[in-house]
């Protein structure tokens, strides 16, 4: 078996290939077209479908955001002839951050909503693809990513006035499909909370209540919490890293349990669940000071096998000298195998891989800031 890692950075897409998860051949930055602009594009989103070999990436270039597709495991690329996402022309303009206009006049009527960046891509059954976009919106494709439909129900949710931009921007940044039910979907919003649908996006329920905050006047709001990442384990339990503690929810409508007690920090961005073992999750804590570096300047992954009741450092093979690169919310993943490989990249431009025994190997170093990492088994 072979393995492919997609590495999205602030200056283009890199790929790494291996047959043993130990030694890697790295290529990039890739020129997705002939003009060269995509070689220095910001790559915030990537998704891969092992069943078909299809890969999608969201690239933000000099000319704006675009979606690129490969059907041969990232060897060649194509772009839709027309922009795959465009807000309805009759959609009332919405500011990127409601807090910017609170108590002031609303923007001019001739302003329009514009797709600024694609933050998340996720494959579903058949030719279904979901996309999370800035400004805060969800889009659905049923033709493999050639065209997308805007989800008006989430956009118009009554709680949308509590959504803010966060430091990264106002966006649907996490999409968590339910492999057993294509009608069921969970999304997370930057400074907006967590929402679920059971009817393929026709209606949405907020499920963030119980996640506390320490940065606002209301420490236990019903919505608007700054959620950094959500992941789903093999039994359907949700795990969330907030701008604060990490949480677990077997039934989100029944409340969330704080699982940060044994972690070196409450704060973090990335969180990834094991594809086949319930209760097994990896996290990459970040120090709670504003410098946003690893606790004690020591890079390490932390792993739980009991749903977050206990955590253990999983750092064998990682640098022991001071290290200052953090792992962003989409900078970590598994390759989805039954015996999975684990991967993460840092803002120092280093990418690491480990099999399930827990020893890390360097994939590549000194790339631009790593924004997203996705991996898959390949023939």
Low-confidence stretches: 100-109
Q: Tell me the strand percentage band.
A: 35-45%
The helix content is under 10%
Mean pLDDT level: 91
Largest pleated sheet: 4 strands, antiparallel
Q: What value does the Rg take, in angstroms?
A: 20 Å
Can you write the helix and strand succession as a string? Answer: EEEEEEHEEEEHEEEEEEEEEEEEEEEEE
Strand order, main sheet: write it out: 3-2-1-27
Could you say which overall geometry the principal axes of the C-alpha atoms support?
globular
Strand-pairing-aware structural class: mainly beta
Strand tally is 27
Question: How many angstroms does the end-to-end distance come to?
Answer: 6 Å
Number of helices: 2
Task: Describe the 3D structure.
This protein is mainly β. It has two helices and 27 strands. It has a four-stranded antiparallel sheet, with no helix packed on it. It is globular, with a radius of gyration of 20 Å. About 3% of the residues have low confidence.
Summarize this structure briefly.
The chain has two helices and 27 strands. With 379 residues, it is an all-beta fold.
Tell me the layout of helices and strands:
Blueprint: E1 2-9, E2 12-18, E3 25-27, E4 42-49, E5 54-61, E6 64-70, H1 98-101, E7 117-123, E8 129-134, E9 137-141, E10 149-150, H2 152-155, E11 172-177, E12 185-189, E13 193-197, E14 205-206, E15 227-232, E16 238-242, E17 246-249, E18 257-258, E19 268-273, E20 281-285, E21 301-304, E22 312-314, E23 332-334, E24 342-345, E25 351-354, E26 360-364, E27 370-378
Antiparallel strand pairs: 1-2, 1-27, 2-3, 4-5, 5-6, 7-8, 8-9, 9-10, 11-12, 12-13, 13-14, 15-16, 16-17, 17-18, 19-20, 20-21, 21-22, 23-24, 24-25, 25-26
């Amino acid at each position: 078996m072979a393995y492919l890692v997609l590495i999205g950075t602030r200056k283009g897409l890199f790929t790494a290939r291996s047959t043993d998860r130990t030694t890697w051949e790295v290529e990039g930055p890739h020129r997705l077209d002939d003009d060269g602009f995509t070689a220095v594009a910001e790559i915030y989103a990537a998704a891969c479908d092992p069943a078909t070999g299809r890969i999608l990436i969201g690239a933000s270039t000099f000319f704006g955001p675009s979606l690129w597709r490969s059907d041969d495991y990232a060897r060649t690329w194509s772009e839709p002839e027309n922009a795959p996402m465009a807000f309805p022309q009759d959609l009332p303009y919405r500011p990127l951050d409601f807090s910017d206009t609170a108590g002031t006049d609303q923007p001019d009527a001739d302003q329009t909503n514009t797709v600024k960046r694609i933050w998340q891509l996720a494959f579903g059954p058949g030719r279904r693809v979901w996309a999370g976009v800035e400004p805060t919106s969800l889009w659905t494709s049923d033709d493999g990513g050639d065209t997308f439909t805007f989800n008006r129900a989430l956009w118009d949710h009554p709680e949308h006035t509590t959504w803010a931009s966060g430091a990264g921007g106002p966006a649907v940044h996490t999409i968590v499909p339910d492999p057993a039910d294509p009608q069921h979907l969970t999304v997370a919003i930057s400074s907006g909370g967590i929402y679920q649908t059971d009817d393929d996006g026709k209606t949405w329920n907020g499920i963030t209540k119980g996640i506390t905050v320490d940065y606002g006047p209301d420490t236990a709001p019903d919505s608007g919490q700054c959620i950094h990442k959500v992941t789903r384990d093999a039994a359907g339990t949700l795990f969330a890293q907030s701008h604060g503690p990490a949480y677990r929810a077997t039934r989100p409508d029944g409340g969330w349990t704080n699982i940060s007690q044994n972690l070196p920090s409450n704060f973090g961005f990335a969180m990834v669940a094991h594809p086949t073992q319930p209760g097994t999750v990896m996290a990459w804590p970040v120090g709670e000071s504003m410098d946003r570096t690893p606790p004690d300047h020591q890079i390490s992954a932390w792993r739980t096998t009991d749903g977050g009741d206990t955590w253990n450092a999983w750092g064998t093979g990682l640098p022991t000298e001071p290290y200052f690169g953090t792992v962003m919310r989409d900078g970590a993943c598994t390759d989805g195998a039954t015996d999975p490989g684990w991967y993460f990249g840092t803002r120092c431009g280093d990418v690491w891989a480990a099999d399930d025994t827990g020893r890390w190997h360097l994939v590549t170093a000194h790339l631009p800031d790593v924004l997203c990492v996705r991996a898959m088994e390949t023939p």
